[in-house]
Amino acid sequence: MATAPGADESDIWQHEPDEVVEGKYRLVRPLGRGGMAEVWLAAHVHLKTELAVKFLSVTLTGDPERSRTILERFRFEAQISARLSARTRHIVAVYDAGVHDDIPYLVMEYVKGRTLFAEVTEKGPIDPLRFADLLEQIADALTVAHELGIVHRDLKPSNVMIFEDPDGAPAVKVADFGIAKATRGNLGLDRPQETDAHIMLGSPNYMSPEQLTSPLEVDAHSDIWALGVLAYEVLTDWPPFQGDTIAEIIIAINTREIEPATNVRRSLPRGLDGWFARALAKEPARRFASVGEMARAYRAALSTSPPAPARRPVAALAAVVVASVSTVAAASFIASRLLDAPRPAHAAARRVSPGVRHALQELASRPPSQLPSAAAAGPAAASAAAPPAAAQGSAAPPAPAAASAAASAQPRSTAPRPAGDRAAPRATATTAPRTPPPPALPRRKEIDKSEIL
């Protein structure tokens, strides 16, 4: 067990540098970890190549059913990643799997890059034309998965690796099929038993409405939703759905319309607002039919629309007033609906996990003054709703706490965004003069999927 001098528990690793796994893989240094596993850079003893070794880091004792499920999912991740990566270069390949000192492991392709989350955290929002290339590659990876009946279920910036290909062009690989769902039974793989319906799998900020309420019924449309959330976040540096708790995020996803992306980042083409509206439609049938169509529509939106003009202050203020009233009403309504609505015959598929149920009950019992406000709707809404003194340079509301290792790997840049790009705070009836753009918005960190199991 590796420990840095003076380290706390978070700096303790299961393995040691120079440890040799199964006589073939010499561990070099840790690369990162999440709620279920830790990953090490390794060198093949005989071939002298660099690889990544992923070890399960959870204790497989106490609950036999949970241990069996974890092992089945880990084995399925290895098999499906190996199958998919043979069909596309945009999925991280898995080469080997086994057990070392009673700990299951996978041997994976080592990608010399970093996550999309780390890229945006350090450099700020991605250029929309550059993202078109990345989006097409992500869509290629997901198309291969969807054609085989595989739904990723945990697509987010920290599960997309970005690097330079041999020609120096940006390239991506989709990683972590650890909670993927097989919608077909004829894959010839060790398909894991599906998790109980009352347990939601995924990262809350990126989960579709149906993934939150009907986890056994998700299909490729949930990946389309998650890709829409990812795109909004990396293009604006602002998550489309926010909340200080998981329950508030669930309320936002189920009830709140997104802030138009061009209100958050004024240099974005206006056509992207319609693109996001379709990608993040509450009803799955209203979204794009496939990730391929989604990528093509994004490219078309870039080529047919100029940057959006500044939004009129009066219209912005009116939108905030409506959002404030509707959010208070909707918060109580959706919490009550999720908790108490009559169940159909397939009611098991619409239960929520005990932890989320408790959070929703707490949210539903709050007085109106303590329910989520318009500030959670987006940066433009928060700026418009703020009093004049707070509108000038004040930071956005604090973001949810971090739990994912990938989220904490890179510090948030404090450099201000270029003037004229980030949408300025909206003027109110008493603040006619335009105010300068606010400083960089504090970026919320991702909530790891392990928090809601």
Automatic annotation (TrEMBL):
Residues 387-453 are annotated as: Disordered. The keyword Transferase applies. Residues 443-453 have a biased composition (Basic and acidic residues). Residues 387-418 have a biased composition (Low complexity). It is an enzyme of class 2 (transferase). The keyword Membrane does not apply. Residues 25-299 form the Protein kinase domain. One of its GO terms (molecular function) is protein serine/threonine kinase activity. ATP binds at residue 54. Gene3D superfamilies: Phosphorylase Kinase, domain 1, Transferase(Phosphotransferase) domain 1. It comes from the Bacteria. Keywords: ATP-binding, Kinase, Nucleotide-binding, Transferase. It holds the Pfam family Pkinase. Its EC number is 2.7.11.1. PANTHER family: MITOGEN-ACTIVATED PROTEIN KINASE KINASE KINASE 20-RELATED, SERINE_THREONINE-PROTEIN KINASE NEKL-3. This is Protein kinase.
